[in-house]
Amino acid sequence: MHERPNRRLAVHKGFGWGEDAYEIKQREGREVYDTIILDDSLDKLLQEQEKEVTFSIRLLAPENRRMKYCFRMVKARISKDAKRYPDILLIRSQRGLLFPGNWSIEVLEMYKDLQWVAHTTGVLT
Amino acid sequence: MAFRDIRGYIAALERHGEAVRIKEPVDWDLEASAMVRLACQLGSPAPILENIQDYPGWSLAGGLFSNYRRAAIAIGLDPDLHPSEILNLYHRRSKHPIKSIIVDQAPCQENVITGEDINLFELCAPYLHEGDGGRYLGSWQFVATPDYDTDWLNWGMCHLMVHNERTLGGLLLPQDDIGVMFYGKYLPHKKPMPWAAVIGAEPLTTVVSAAPYGRGKSEVDWAGGLRLEPVELVRCVTQPLYVPANAEIILEGVVDPEDLRLYEGPVGEYTGYRTSPRMPRVAFRVTAITFRDNPINCVACLGVPTDDADMMAAVLTRSDMLTMLEINGIPVVDLCIPPQMVSHAAIVSVRKPHSYVGNRVATLLFGTKNTGMNLQQLFVCDEDIDVFDIKQVLHAFATKCHPKRGITYYDNQPATPLLPHLSYEERLLGRTTKVVFDCTWPLDWSPMRDIPVRGNFWDMYPERTIEKICDRWQGWGYPQDMRKVWEEGKARASWK
Amino acid sequence: MAYRDLREFLDALEKNGELIRIQDEVDWDLEAGAIIRLACQLNGPSPLMEQIKDYPGQRMMGGYFSSYRKAAIAIGIDPDSDVPTVLDAFHQRIKHPIKPIIVNRAPCQENVITGDDVNLFDIVSPMPHDGDAGRYIATWQFIATPDYDTDWINWGMYRQMIQNEKVLGGLIIPAQDIGYQFYTKYLPNKKPMPWATVIGTEPVTTIVSAAPYGIGRSEVDWAGGLRLEPVELVRCVSQPLYVPANAEYIIEGYINPTLEDRAYEGPWGEYSGYRTSPRAPRTAFHVTAITHRNNPIHTHSPLGVPVDDSHMAFTILCRSDMLNVLEDNAIPVVGLHVPPEMVGHTVVVSIKKPSPNLANLIASLLFGTKNTGLAIRDVIVCDEDVDVYDLDQVLHVLATKWHPRRGTTLYDNQVGMPLIPYLSMEERIWGKTARMVYDCTWPLDWSPTRDIPVRSSFWDIYPERVIEGVCQKWQRVGYPEDMKKIWEAGKKLASWE
Q1: What are the strands of the beta sheet with C408-415, ordered from one edge?
Q2: What is the Cα C28 distance to its own chain's centre?
Q3: Residue A121: predicted pLDDT
Q4: What residues 109-148 of chain C have any CB closer than 8 A to a CB of chain B?
């Protein structure tokens, strides 16, 4: 069979793939993280801006490259304004799509332990 | 005869042109996975990546079981055999399990890391698809778990995501064997469940773990039967559990019933999509890592056909279904799970002895444990269809299946959340609809008046005409040796 | 540029390795048909059989249009063009019909037989399949019929079986153009209907006759458009009618304007891949003249399981007709394929999704059209990211995106044809069938970030920088495919622009 590139699905347009995190780090001189949200929109996250929040992030450009994509629980402040806080935060949906626009983050504390949550019952385990 | 380890298998793949060794540096972050993915989509040889960025000394191998040729090589057969011959041999061997043996010294324990030294990021786990929830250490491997109160050792294939230095996360469904052990025994007794993830065992040992063998049945013995030689096991260094001695990497640990959950996923799955929601799932705490020198991490980068998951269904699930149909006396001629349809469809050809045999096949198969869960569509054909020739099947479907009379819907069937066609609500409830396409001539049609005669070279001409043409075919300048094709297939073509 | 006749086309096939000349004597009784059948089933070169038992000086050939390669050669484009390129070339050309021209002298009339000398058994007609009701003089040809009261000439591909020296039998369905002319005009006016059977032209002149162009529309002009040159016509010797001047054989005659003049005809193996149609009293075609070229070549298509000429003609021409209908109705079609493997019973359409239940709008449009819709059993509708020309991709979406309840719509009590194999005798008699829509698109109310799964294909699930890097590397690390070229050529397709 003659393989050729697929057309892409139009409804996923705008949720582009990520730039290489180390390139961003080098260009901007800032740390780069991302977080995965369960909601369908950014509404809830918008309410969390500029408060002290505790949640999970992934390290996207750690010093030791082997540690890339490691999860850390952090206490942090976040903002939709990409310049407001020192570091960069990318937002992904639970389908793995990247929301357009970088956020910014100030990590107040980074914990060794993970963010544990309660068990949800149902088939979707 | 059997492969001792994955290295022997990779060498055999290379001899048959089914693997390519790549010395050029490749990034574990998407690039290696993208190469495995492309090789699967092109049907190209499996890439064996021997120079991985950030991980000197490590190799990544992917697509090791992604076509019928590789399945044949894994079983030790001629790779050019017709798929049905390969599968039937597998099916026969799977009926004669061989018990494993225990060894003291094992290559998989050449390097042992325990306690504070454990860091999963020192293992070369690839990032599989852009946007996945994390790096997956286990994608073509299995998790071994001992039963709580019997000597049953279960092997099951599942994905394991790396959360941090010492924690993996994975899906533990209550209906899976491992789930029965954990939710039914360890959890109520408040005892940690020991587990060991086995990466890079020889291919048959690995793939049987994905087979639906059922409760209390040990995959280890099946692997032995398929290999025609026992599997060599060694005791884990930190857990009361045995694992294949010649595997590349072993991770040992416990699932602690006291633990809360961790968000895990999503990851691109066997269906060809990233469908599973990100959910709180079980934590696999790691107590030891052991591996061979210069270890080879074996990965499956799942996606659109044809990859290892599609082939495992084509080989293993088929065998399980055949057993089911044989026990129930269904007059099956052949059965195929076309890899193009990611184990969601099965095609069965039958000699039809009674009405609605297709729906009997369907209820049997839809009801079985793992086998039935993925199966969404059953195509039933008459015995004159080669179920392994998808074009013949499509022709039968297009010309013999009546859109009303020929289709039966099975509503309110149990479903996994991974099925892409289900709505969010259906996924929550685990509900789907399955379907049977009956592509056989109705029983009440008269052979003389109603049943059409197929206009096929092999059906529509007398043997003397067929023979005369096949004899001279190559002489006229056509490439095919039709004389041989006819000689070999003559018996099949006759009504005797 | 266009092929003047069948012979020029056969030379082109031979140059491209798509023709085999067979000098051994071949029997017209089953053997010739079986050879063509096998060549089609193996997707091999067309056989040109130069020595036919009992018929010295006459030749037979078939299977000259049974693949995309042969179709590309038929219109003079690169035989290795990919499937959509071949299909779109036909579709574009067919939009610009060219009128025929009339000539006085014609190769097809190098030999003229009329009156008492007419004997159909002097023409090398095959016995196509074992068990067919008779010898079929016409299986891959067309019948030209003039309209009663307009200047429309219809060309249609209708089979004809030999009854005796001077009579052919054939099926005239009222729903087809020839049936419309006969049953609504010649019969009520009690006038004999002239006809001429044209055997052995270059392919496009013949295949347009199998296309559903509709009442009042002339296939001759479409053939000219496809050829990019007008078709040359000549006047028949015994009927008031024009036929292609460079054809191999012409058979001329008339149909009596009565329902009594019938002969039992059929069965014979059909396009569906089965011998399905019942034996029934059908129309008698009376022959008044036979004309042919020197050393004529008879074109034959022993229809059967895919892929043969009839399936390719469907795949190309019905597609074009369907596209026209969908384009006229502003349906956002991305691709449309009638897979030859499914004998025209299944249509696969990919769309950009703008409105609810678009799949059913498409289906009802297609089911309603004249010939096109009659053969279709089901329409499979996909999102734009599916390559409808790749059957494996279509099977994958059918297995993963089609919901058997939500995605299914059954159309009951549809117009059926007696040739459809899955119909019961009762349904065939009443012309009743059912049709299906398989909607394999993501539902409109699914959220892109929560519900719609992301496809895990090399082309979808990696950033462009990774795709590009891998494609660059691919041949260097030892793989044969030139992925760099494939990516360069397809990059635009893959982007969201």
Answers
A1: C333-337, C346-351, C378-383, C432-440, C408-415
A2: 24
A3: 59
A4: 129-131
Low-confidence ranges of chain C (pLDDT < 70): 370-372, 497
Compare all CA atoms of chain A with the CA of B273 and give the residue at the minimum distance: A95
Per-residue pLDDT tens over the stretch C150-206: 989 999 999 999 999 999 999 888 878 899 999 999 999 999 999 999 999 999 999
Length of chain C: 497
The string of pLDDT tens digits covering residues C243-286 is: 999 999 999 999 999 999 998 998 999 999 999 888 889 999 99
Single-letter amino acid, residue B343: S
The ipTM (two decimal places) reads 0.93
Q: How far apart are CA B422 and CA A91, in angstroms?
A: 26
Token reading at A72: 């850390």
Identify which of C377, C456, C479 has the shortest CB distance to residue B272.
C456
The answer to whether residue C330 neighbours chain B at the CB level (below 8 Å) is no
Q: How many CB atoms lie within 10 A of CB C455?
A: 28
Topology at the third CATH level for domain B328-439: UbiD C-terminal domain-like (3.40.1670)
Residue with tokens 């059967």: C304
What is the residue-averaged pLDDT of chain C?
94
User: C1 vs chain B: nearest CA distance in angstroms?
Assistant: 29
Q: What's the CATH fold of domain B81-293?
A: Pnp Oxidase; Chain A (2.30.110)
Q: What pLDDT score was predicted for residue C375?
A: 87
Report how far residue C217's alpha carbon sits from residue C229's, in angstroms, rounded to the nearest whole number: 18
pLDDT, tens only, C378-418:
999 999 999 999 999 999 999 999 999 999 999 999 988 88
Domains within chain C, CATH numbers bracketed: 66-299 (2.30.110.10), 329-440 (3.40.1670.10), 464-494 (no CATH)
Beta-strand relationship, B345-350 and B377-382 = parallel
Residues C62, C140: contact at Cβ < 8 Å? yes
Distances in Å between the alpha carbon of C57 and those of C11, C27, C140? Answer: 19, 14, 20
Q: Can you read off the two tokens belonging to residue B334?
A: 């052949």
DSSP symbol at A92: E
Pairing of strands B167-170, B136-138: unpaired
Bridge partners, residue B466, by sequence = none
The one-letter amino acid code at C372 reads: T
Q: Cβ of B100: how many Cβ atoms within 10 Å? A: 20
Instruction: Tell me the nearest-neighbour CA distance from B311 into chain A, angstroms.
Output: 18
Kindly report, as residue ranges, where domains of CATH 2.30.110.10 are found in chain B: 81-293
Collapsing DSSP to helix, strand or coil, B476 comes out as helix
Start-to-end C-alpha separation, chain A: 38
- Write out chain A residues lying below 8 Å of C447, CB-based: 40
Mean pLDDT, to the nearest integer, of B32-37? Answer: 97
The Cα of B230 is separated from the nearest Cα of chain C by a number of Å equal to 36
Measured torsion, CA atoms of residues C183, C186, C189, C190, in degrees rounded to the nearest 10: -100
Helix B390-400, helix C391-400: angle, nearest 10:
60
How does DSSP assign B142-208, residue by residue? EEEEE-SSSS-EEEE---EEEEETTEEEE---TTSHHHHHIIIIITTTT-PEEEEEEES--HHHHHG
For the question of whether the overall pTM of this predicted structure is more than 0.90, the answer is: yes
Among the partner residues B399, B420, B449, nearest to C345 by beta-carbon distance:
B399
* From-to residues of CATH 3.40.1670.10 in chain B: 328-439
Contact C82 A4 (CB under 8 A): yes
Q: Residues 10..49 of A with a Cβ closer than 8 Å to C: which?
A: 10-15, 17-20, 40-41
